[in-house]
Design goal:
The chain is mainly α. About 65% of the residues lie in helices and about 0% in strands. It contains 26 helices and three strands. The protein has a three-stranded antiparallel beta sheet. Strand 2 and strand 3 form a beta hairpin. Helix 16 packs across helix 21. The chain is elongated. The protein starts with a helix and ends with a helix.
Length: about 500
C-alpha cells in the first residue's frame, strides 16, 4: 500500500486525463473525507460518525506521511489559528512537500467549516499518532500536553470519542518514556472533570489509565481505593470494559480473592477481540496462575490456543509440576523461566504456589497409600532437598517450617495442616510416626457434583444476560409498543401480500 501511494503522488503531473480515480486513493484525500465525516457528525450531533472517523484513521495510520499530515493541517485549520502554528512546528518537513500537496488535490474539492472544535481536536489526535509511530516521543509529549490543555475548555458530547483516544495516547507516550508518575495528577483531574461533565466514555477510559498507572508501580491499595470510590455506570466500550476486568482481576489476585479474580480474568479473555492477541495472552497467564492457586488444573486446550502456544509454554511446564506435585521439578521450572515470570510480574504469585505443590503431592500420596510413615512422606515430597530457593520463597518456607533441619517434623506439620484444612481424608498417628488414609468414598454421595453443575448453570445464565444487555434496539422502541390487535393486523396484511405476490409470480411463469 505505501508503494502505491508514493507512485500516485510522484507520477501525478504525468498521469493521463482518464486516470482520475488514482488521486482519490491518496492519503490526503482520505483524510479530507474523514474530516467531512467529522463535520457531519458535529453538525448533526451524531457520535457514531465521530467513532467511524476514528476507526478510519486507525486503519490509515500506516500510510501517514509528513507531507500528508502537513497538507491536511493547512486544509482543516484556519491560517490564523493557534493550533495550526503549534502543530505545524511538530510535523517534520520533507523535500518536495509543496509539489506533492498540489498534485494530490482531487478534481472535486472537499470543503469543511473552519472553527469546529471536533476538527481541531482531530488534528491534535492525527499529529500525536503520527509522532508516536515515528518514535518522536519528545514532540509527542508536547503535542499531547497541548491537546489536553485544549480539551479542558471543551464540553461537547461529540468531542468525547476523540478525547478518549487522546487520553489513551497521552498516557501511552508517557509510558514509553517511563514518566507515568508525572501525569497521575493530570489524569485524576481529567477524571474529575469527565465525571462533572457526565462524559461516561472519558470516565471509563481515564479510570483504566489510572488503574494501569497505579499497577505499573505496584500500588495495588491505591488502585483498589480508586476503583471502589469511582462512580458506577454502564460500560460503553467493550475494549475499555475488557481492560477494566483485567486490572480488577490483578487487584483481586494480589488481595488473595482468587475466586473473583478468576472470574474477572476469564471474562476479560473471553470478551477481548481475537485480534488483541497480546492482551489475551496476558489474561490467560494470570488466569492460569489463579486457577493453580485455587487448586485447579487448567485444561491442555488452554495452552494450545492458536498463536499462544509459545508464550504459554513456561506456564504449561509450571502447571505440569503442580499437577504432579513434584517440589524439585517446580523449583527447576521456576528457576528456568525466572526472567519470563519477572517480566510478566507473576513471580511473587508463583512463590505462593509452593504450598500448593506440596499439598498436591501429599494428596497423591494419601490416595496411593493406606498407611505411610512420615519419613517416607518427607522423602517423596523432597523436603530434605538442599537446593537453594529465592529470597521471597525462603520467607514462605520459614513460615511453613519447610527449611527446618528435621524433615520428619516438617512432614508432620504439613500433614496435620492438610488434614485440618480438609485437603486429605486421613488421620495422623503421632506415636508410631505414620499417616493412615481413609477409604475414598463415592464422590456422588457428596454435594460436589451439585456444586459443579450449579456453577456451570450460573455461568450460562450470566452469559445469556450479558448477551441480552448487549442487544441494540432502534431509538424510541420502548415508546412505540405494538398492541396485540395491531400485530395481528400487520401479520395478516403481510400474509395477504405474500400470497398476492406468489400468485403474480405464477401468472408470469
Amino acid at each position: 500500500m505505501p508503494q502505491d501511494v508514493g507512485m500516485n503522488d510522484s507520477q501525478a503531473p504525468t498521469a493521463a486525463v482518464g486516470d482520475a480515480p488514482a488521486p482519490a486513493q491518496s492519503t490526503l484525500q482520505r483524510l479530507k473525507e474523514i474530516a467531512s465525516v467529522i463535520e457531519a457528525g458535529s453538525l448533526s450531533k451524531e457520535v457514531r460518525r465521530i467513532s467511524r472517523a476514528v476507526r478510519l484513521t486507525v486503519a490509515l495510520r500506516r500510510r501517514l506521511a509528513a507531507r500528508d499530515v502537513a497538507a491536511f493541517l493547512t486544509f482543516a485549520l484556519p491560517s490564523s489559528s493557534d493550533a495550526l502554528a503549534r502543530l505545524s512546528v511538530l510535523v517534520p518537513k520533507e523535500d518536495g512537500c509543496e509539489m506533492d500537496v498540489d498534485t494530490a488535490a482531487p478534481t472535486a474539492q472537499l470543503l469543511i467549516k473552519h472553527g469546529l472544535p471536533e476538527i481541531e481536536i482531530y488534528c491534535y489526535l492525527l499529529v500525536l499518532i503520527f509522532l508516536i509511530d515515528n518514535k518522536k516521543y519528545d514532540e509527542a509529549k508536547t503535542c499531547a500536553s497541548a491537546s489536553i490543555a485544549r480539551l479542558k475548555s471543551l464540553n461537547r458530547r461529540t468531542v468525547d470519542v476523540l478525547a478518549s483516544r487522546l487520553y489513551s495516547y497521552y498516557s501511552y507516550v508517557h509510558e514509553l518514556t517511563n514518566t507515568l508518575a508525572e501525569i497521575r495528577g493530570t489524569l485524576l483531574a481529567l477524571h474529575r472533570m469527565a465525571t462533572l461533565h457526565h462524559d461516561e466514555l472519558g470516565q471509563e477510559t481515564l479510570l483504566n489509565l489510572l488503574l494501569r498507572n497505579y499497577l505499573h508501580y505496584n500500588l495495588y491499595d491505591q488502585a483498589e481505593k480508586l476503583r471502589s470510590k469511582a462512580p458506577r455506570f454502564e460500560a460503553h466500550s467493550n475494549q475499555q470494559f475488557c481492560r477494566y476486568l483485567f486490572y480488577l482481576g490483578k487487584i483481586r489476585t494480589i488481595q488473595l480473592e482468587y475466586t473473583d479474580a478468576k472470574e474477572s480474568l476469564l471474562q476479560a479473555a473471553r470478551k477481548a477481540p481475537s485480534t488483541a492477541r497480546g492482551f489475551r495472552i496476558q489474561c490467560n497467564k494470570w488466569a492460569i496462575i489463579v486457577r493453580l492457586l485455587l487448586g485447579e488444573i487448567p485444561e491442555r486446550t488452554v495452552f494450545m490456543q492458536k498463536g499462544m502456544k509459545a508464550a504459554l509454554t513456561p506456564y504449561f511446564e509450571l502447571t505440569n509440576a503442580v499437577r504432579v506435585g513434584d517440589l524439585e521439578l517446580f523449583r527447576s521450572v521456576a528457576d528456568k523461566f525466572s526472567s519470563t515470570f519477572s517480566a510478566d510480574r507473576t513471580r511473587n504469585l508463583i512463590v505462593r504456589l509452593r504450598h500448593n505443590v506440596i499439598r498436591t503431592g501429599l494428596r497423591n500420596i494419601s490416595i496411593s497409600y493406606s498407611r505411610i510413615s512420615l519419613a517416607d512422606i518427607a522423602k517423596k515430597l523432597r523436603l530434605d532437598s538442599e537446593n537453594p530457593v529465592a529470597d521471597a520463597e525462603s520467607i514462605v518456607a520459614k513460615k511453613l517450617r519447610l527449611d527446618s533441619e528435621n524433615p520428619v517434623a516438617d512432614a508432620e506439620s504439613i500433614v496435620a495442616k492438610a488434614i485440618r484444612d480438609g485437603a486429605i481424608d486421613a488421620t495422623l498417628d503421632h506415636a508410631n510416626g505414620w499417616m493412615v488414609s481413609k477409604e475414598t468414598g463415592d464422590v456422588y454421595s457428596t454435594n460436589e457434583p451439585q456444586i459443579a453443575f450449579n456453577s456451570r448453570i450460573a455461568f450460562c445464565l450470566n452469559m445469556h444476560n450479558e448477551a441480552v444487555k448487549a442487544l441494540r434496539f432502534p431509538p424510541n422502541s420502548h415508546k412505540e409498543k405494538e398492541s396485540a390487535e395491531k400485530r395481528r393486523e400487520r401479520l395478516q396484511q403481510e400474509e395477504e401480500l405474500a400470497k398476492h405476490m406468489a400468485e403474480e409470480d405464477d401468472d408470469d411463469f
